[in-house]
Design a protein that fits this description.
The structure is a single chain. By secondary structure, the protein is an alpha/beta fold. Strand 13 and strand 14 form a beta hairpin. The strands form 3 sheets. Strands 1, 2, 11, 12, 15, 16, 17, 18 and 19 form a 9-stranded mixed beta sheet that branches. Helix 1 crosses helix 5, helix 2 packs parallel to helix 5 and helix 7 crosses helix 9. It has 2 domains: about 260 residues, Aminopeptidase, CATH 3.40.630.10; about 130 residues, Glucose Oxidase, domain 1. Helices cover about 30% and strands about 25% of the residues.
């Protein structure tokens, strides 16, 4: 009877602790993805606000800076859209982020323009393409890609390359290009500015009725100083060797004055994982020293990670293992481990922990992929994983990646799996 009561107490205590961690993670995600942080990018200094917030969390947890400060600054260029943005098809006002997105390389443009129309397949007709370029001076080209069925990959690639010529080549005299699609809108960032603006539009419209388009866009290519936030916990046995947990804190920011991209799953959830692990290991120091890196400017080309590996605050060859956390907020179908097939032994250990304790529905592996910050470390020979959750909501790089719809349903189990993995690492 006593043993049963003790077991029940320990189970309830564990559930209470996990609920507490979930509450902490939820607060992190809610804060970082809130409107006050402006999408954690470069208009309105949302990026700097996020960095300061994470520094304060590091300090509150009790992490130590490796040098004098938690911050490792670096410079970048970024194309921004800081002012009101408007796109009207004839008299219909479209909703930014919902009906359309602007190409991140776009430049400024204001005015009302006549519309030319092509279907994507028309780009492969040399006569039609030349006529469009010759008659397109000062007009907006609308390209319908919805029913394009290329006969092979080469044809698809050629059509895409020709579309990019129309969008980006300064010698093409179009005022702007609009790509009409029925696919999901997915935005990104850019560190250069093209000669003209372009848009992707997916609102259901009768294209045959479109005559004019009114465009109001202000773009600014700016210099900006971002930073990596780096703290550590000294190891209890081998303090000169390191385990590293990493996640990027930046996101896409503002598209115009009023439309922001919250980035709850991408990657406020990864920062929540980073801070959850930091809180645990501050109380229970691991065998090796543990370094926590919140990287900046991942979305614009892995710039924070690149700066770190080129100016490392610790010896890269002293890193026993690194795990990069991105998209940590779902998990209905488990997790995917990039480099799992490269580093088979640690992957097997991770999977065995999960098989034994049933934290997640699955632990799946894949090969190399240069799709997040781990890639720069991998290229330097640092053993590493990049892990992201599977299943659940599909919001990604859009205005719907919000705290309110991010489940975090497997977050506690996922964080406990990673605590076990780091704790047992040899």
């Amino acid at each position: 009877m006593y043993r049963l009561l003790l077991l029940s107490f320990l189970v309830l205590q564990g559930l209470a602790l996990m609920a507490q961690e979930n509450g902490y993670a939820r607060e992190i995600v809610k804060t970082l993805s809130s409107e006050a942080f402006k999408g954690r990018a470069y208009v309105g200094d949302g990026n700097k606000k996020a960095a300061e917030y994470i520094k304060n969390q590091f300090q509150s947890i009790g992490l130590k800076p490796i040098e004098e400060s938690f911050a490792q600054p670096f410079d970048l260029k970024v194309n921004t859209f800081p002012s009101n943005m408007s796109l009207k098809i004839d008299s219909l006002e479209l909703v930014p982020g919902q009906d359309y997105i602007i190409d991140p390389y776009s430049s400024s443009l204001k005015g009302n323009y006549q519309v030319l129309q092509l279907k994507m397949k028309d780009l492969l007709n040399e006569d039609i393409l030349k006529k469009t370029i010759n008659t397109g001076l000062g007009k907006v080209l609308l390209v319908d890609v919805t029913k394009f069925n290329p006969k092979d990959k080469k044809e698809e690639q050629l059509a895409g390359e020709l579309l990019n010529v129309l969008k980006y080549n300064p010698q093409v005299p179009l005022a702007a290009v609009i790509v009409y699609t029925n696919k999901k809108l997915t935005w990104s960032t850019a560190n250069m500015q093209a000669a003209k603006p372009s848009f992707i539009l997916n609102k259901e419209l009768d294209l045959s009725q479109i005559k004019t388009v009114d465009i109001q866009v202000s773009a600014r290519l700016i210099n900006y100083t971002s930073e990596n936030i780096v703290g550590y916990i000294e190891g209890s046995v081998q303090s000169d060797s390191f385990l590293v947990a990493m996640a990027h804190y930046d996101h896409l920011g503002l598209m115009g004055a009023d439309t922001y991209f919250p980035g709850a799953n991408d990657n406020a959830s990864g920062i929540a994982m980073l801070l959850t692990l930091a809180r645990h290991f501050q109380k229970y120091p691991p065998k090796y020293s543990m370094v926590f890196i919140a990287t900046g400017a991942e979305e614009i080309g892995l710039l924070g990670a690149r700066h770190f590996v080129e100016h490392p605050l610790i010896q890269l060859d002293k890193i026993k293992f690194l795990v990069n956390f991105d998209l940590a907020g779902t998990g209905d179908e488990g997790i995917k481990v990039v480099n799992g097939s490269v580093h088979q032994k640690p992957f097997n250990e991770l999977r065995q922990i999960n098989d034994r304790l049933h934290y997640l529905p699955s632990v799946q592996k894949r090969g190399e992929a240069c799709n997040s910050d781990h890639c720069l470390f991998h290229q330097k020979g640092v053993p590493c994983f990049y892990i992201y959750t599977l299943g659940g909501i599909k919001a990604y790089h859009d205005i719907y990646d919000r705290n309110e719809t991010l489940p975090l349903s497997y977050f506690d189990n996922y964080s406990q799996l990673m605590i076990d993995f780091f704790t047992q690492f040899e």
